[in-house]
Write a structure and sequence with these properties.
Length: 413
């Protein structure tokens, strides 16, 4: 199966910190195109069932040997995903194939893609999880999709991102009503009927709001209470130097020049709402980790983007005035991915754009590593505050950095 390796173009990647070397892989140009098109920051663990006989080598790189995901991630983890399939395509449902199989353009060769066929992207790790992928792609065509948000998100978070498209109608609440009107909608708890609750422990907003009083961990657990902490975030002056206010950050730039932006991992969308109140358009990326974050953000009247931290931002180079991220970008992210994320943020910011890194947390001994990683990207520090994170006790030696980093207006390249 690996006969083709090395006979076409080669891709090698050295992890500078550990010297892991991935096998060189057969990668015909069209395959590189798929890789680029499928927007994967995640690692060069190739899985493909596409066959390109025209390129003079078969790119069907079915896995026949253990694949060390940890090595690919450069973190030395021991996770080993062993996938052995003689004929992977045959295991997948027809809809899976229907979506991913190369499809001929109706008018022949397409000048933009320089190809006769269009190949729709899915995350290349999708095929590492054939059982989950099969379940996801098994549904009545033209009919109702299964109510499977929980499984779909799990598949996505494993790396199958983007998920394949489906030809079915997503589950929706039977009593959906028109949303509240702007601007009231920005600070209104939406009706329970705006959410399909199947994927979450809570089955209504009263439960989500009450969650702030519970002991169990939940992502952003006080974020659904719009009368609570959300109300003061970024607007009420704080004596903690790590808490910047939106207005003080906007004052770092000429008035009105911060117009469009992105909030990465923006919880329930309050940052975007506060920015909207200042006439700044912000899109919020969020997953739905045990809560209907995307539905909630949308119900408030700002745009949710269902995107994990792993994926390349679907935004062009040098475009955004501001990127903000609180808590999400932290030390749980593998180092190599962390470095890629910072470069991706730098990429989408326009020259002179600002990255507000809000409460980035880590432990004290990691400080040097993170500071040199952040500094390697090319930002200029407009604000930089380092402080202790004490909520779990001082003995853990946890730290925060809050910073406003500017992409240089000149010579940013
Ligand atoms: C779904 O709809 C399309 C378009 O009308 C049709 O061609 C196809 O046969 C339908 N498929 C099924 C399984 O009903
Ligand atoms: C936002 O824009 C509207 C319409 O142009 C304007 O009336 C309003 O004063 C602006 N608000 C802020 C906070 O700049």
């Amino acid at each position: 199966m690996h006969a083709a390796r090395g006979s076409c173009c080669r891709i090698r990647r050295m992890d500078s910190s550990r010297g892991h070397r991935l096998p060189s892989l057969c990668a015909p140009p069209v395959f590189l195109f798929i890789l680029a098109a499928s927007n994967l920051v995640t690692f060069f663990v190739f899985s493909s069932t596409f066959s390109f006989s025209s390129s003079g080598c078969s790119a069907s790189s079915y896995f026949t040997s253990p694949l060390t995901a940890g090595a690919a991630a450069g973190d030395g983890a021991t996770v080993t995903a062993q996938v052995e399939r003689a004929s992977p395509a045959a295991d997948l449902p027809p809809e899976s194939l229907a979506f991913t199989a190369p499809q001929s353009f109706p008018f022949g060769r397409n000048p933009n893609s320089q190809s006769d066929v269009l190949i729709a992207p899915v995350g290349h790790p999708c095929e590492l999880f054939p059982a989950e992928l099969s379940r996801f792609m098994t549904y009545p065509v033209n009919g109702s999709c299964p109510d499977d948000e929980f499984e779909a998100q799990r598949l996505l978070l494993k790396g199958c991102e983007p998920l394949p498209r489906r030809r079915c109608r997503p589950a929706a609440h039977a009593d959906f009503v028109e949303p509240a009107a702007l601007p009231e909608s920005l600070w209104l708890t939406p009706p329970d009927s705006s959410v399909v609750w199947t994927a979450y422990t809570c089955k209504n907003y009263a439960c989500l709001i009450e969650r702030k009083n519970q002991k169990d961990f939940d992502d952003c657990k006080d974020c659904f209470d719009l009368e609570g902490r959300e109300k003061s975030r970024w607007v009420v002056p704080s004596d903690n130097p790590l808490d910047f206010s939106i207005d003080e950050v906007l004052r770092l730039k000429p008035p009105g020049t911060v117009r469009i932006g992105l909030d990465i991992g923006g919880g329930s969308g309050t940052f975007a709402v506060r920015m909207k109140e200042r006439n700044v358009t912000v899109v919020t990326t969020s997953m739905n980790l045990n809560g209907p974050f995307n539905s909630f953000i949308a119900a408030r009247g700002v745009i949710p983007l269902y995107l994990s931290i792993s994926q390349r931002l679907p935004i062009f180079d040098n475009t955004l005035d501001v990127v903000h991220s609180m808590h999400v970008i932290s030390n749980w992210i593998p180092d190599t991915l962390f470095h890629f994320i910072f470069f991706d943020i730098y990429r989408v910011l326009r020259p002179g754009g600002i990255f507000w890194l809000d409460h980035f947390f880590f432990v004290e001994e990691q400080m040097g590593k993170y500071v040199s990683m952040i500094d390697s990207v090319g930002f200029r520090r407009l604000k930089w505050v380092v402080g202790r994170k004490l909520d779990r006790g001082p003995e853990l030696k946890e730290m925060y950095i809050s910073a406003v980093l500017e992409k240089p207006l000149k010579n940013s390249w």
